[in-house]
Amino acid sequence: MAQHVETLVIGGGPAGLTTAYTLAKAGRGVTVLEMDPARVGGAARTLDYKGVKFDIGGHRFFSRNPEILELWREILPEGFLERPRRSRIYYRGRFYAFPLRAFQALANLGPWMAAKCLASFAWAKVKPVKQPESFRDWVRNHFGETLFSTFFKSYAEKVWGMSCDELSADWARQRIRGLDLGTAIADGVRRSLGLRRAKPVATPTKTLSERFLYPRQGAGMVWEACAEKVSALGGEVRLGRRVDGLHYDKLARIWTVSVASADGRKEIYTADNVVSSAPIRELMQSISPTPMSVFHAGELMYRDFLTVVLMGKPRKAPPDTWVYVHDASVEVGRVRNLGAWSPEMIPEGVEAALGLEYFCFEGDALWSLSDDELIAKAKAELASIGLMDIEAIQDACVARQRKAYPVYDEAYAEHVRMIRLDLKMHYPGLHIVGRNGMHRYGDQDRAMMTGVLTAENIIAGERLHDVWEVDENAAYERPALRVERAAPRRAAA
Predict the structure, then answer these.
(1) What are phi and psi of 59, to 5 degrees?
(2) CB burial class (10 A; 0-12, 13-18, 19+) of residue 158?
């Protein structure tokens, strides 16, 4: 027999759980279905290996949106530390402070290369690409061809597995927006002369932020607390549930959702509203009647993610939260120092734990390596960077994350536009939220804001907010409307 709920949320990550929490606080019926059999949090969950805790990618709790900052503190009132952000770039045997310290960067590059970078920047300002469509065009316009080739190209191609000419300029606009060479040098001069003071967490530019909030025992701590609050408010969070079919009855305006549980049982739910943070490609392919835009959904791409955690005695404990590895001689993209995020991530007896992060496509040569092969590769690459000797590594583990990042190729925007139009016209009551749900890269504050606004739309019984208007800083200007708590169409059973 089908179980009915007013709102069914697919995915127990930041966007899905924030939606559920907002609805549950308003007294609305909500059930969250999470595919992972053990943990909520999605790509923001925290794993545990012999007491060493690590996130799937580091998740800074930093936002310009005071509403999101307040929501984090509401969910986890006493669990946050304020941490310094210390990051460096590794390139051709040298470490560069990130954000830029002007004098250090010039010294590392040498006078000839520094002069070449500045001349290239000047030329880009004189002869810019008039309509930049690719990542390369956009970065070249803002930094010059030489600096693009030196620092941006190798790292971007590691992350996305494609040429910078194929990668949309949208990625650069979103992630590098607010920085240009002049701003970076001016900021770097202030840093180099010690004139820049630490600012509070809500600084204007994420890329230049010096401090951030972080849960004592990892990002997953927030989402586990959020799931507990949803349950305490009368909602449900069910783990080990994989959605394998959604059917929309246009006459009854009801969704019927088929779910496979981890123990092999089949469950059927009916819902007035479905909120999905699952990858939109998979969502659209599971809907019946078949959406007209299913072809567009099938063309969307995702980048997958590997973390290899190495535990041992480093040559010198790195102070960094992250080292961005721009050097093309190794495949590792970032190295994360777990202890620099929170001392509680590492138990007694473990001197240091470093997480090496690799970007790949599921099924490619890197993804297909066994765990032992990945560990051997990570050991060799970490030693070549100079952070830890192979013989000093005492233990290791591997974690794999499918569909970690939506890919911004040249055609993605048109595919997403057609999907949005199809959903608006033919599938009312289906709401998409979050990074993979909207195929829109962003930090967790942005994902959370889409969840808050979606919940408010459901509570009001109408579309008060356009979640696509939430910008890369999680900012959204609410219309001057009162959110009415409309009665649900059907009482939750």
Answers:
(1) -125, 100
(2) buried
Q: What is the mean pLDDT of the chain?
A: 89
> Is the confidence at residue 195, as pLDDT, over 90?
no
pLDDT at 177 over 60: no
pLDDT computed for residue 187 by the predictor: 58
Residue with tokens 């669990």: 79
Q: How large is the average pLDDT for residues 255-264?
A: 95
Which residues share a beta bridge with 276?
Answer: 10, 432
Q: Residue 112 pLDDT more than 60?
A: yes
β 80-84/287-288 pair status: unpaired
* Angstrom distances, CA of residue 456 to CA of 25, 181, 185, 409, 421: 11, 41, 43, 32, 21
Residue 279: name the closest of 112, 401, 446, 146 by CA: 401
- ∠ CA 339-36-81, nearest 5°, is 25
Give the 3-state secondary structure percentages of the chain, helix then strand then coil, rounded to 5.
40, 25, 35
30 sits in the region (left: phi over 0; alpha: psi -120 to 50; else beta) called: beta
Distance CA 88, CA 292 (A): 46
Contact 268, 359 (CB under 8 A): no
User: Residues 420, 423, 428, 432: what is their CA dihedral angle, to the nearest 10 degrees?
Assistant: -60
Q: Are 321 and 86 in contact (CB under 8 A)?
A: yes
CA distance 404 to 444: 13
Q: How many residues does the chain have?
A: 493
- Range in 3-17, 140-154, 272-286, 465-479 the model is least confident about: 140-154
Edge-first strand order for the sheet with 87-91 is 94-98, 87-91, 322-325, 334-337, 352-360, 302-312, 393-406
What is the rounded distance in angstroms from the CA atom of residue 241 to the CA atom of residue 227?
15
Q: What is the DSSP letter of 472?
A: T
Task: Compute the C-alpha angle 44/373/364, nearest 5°.
Answer: 65
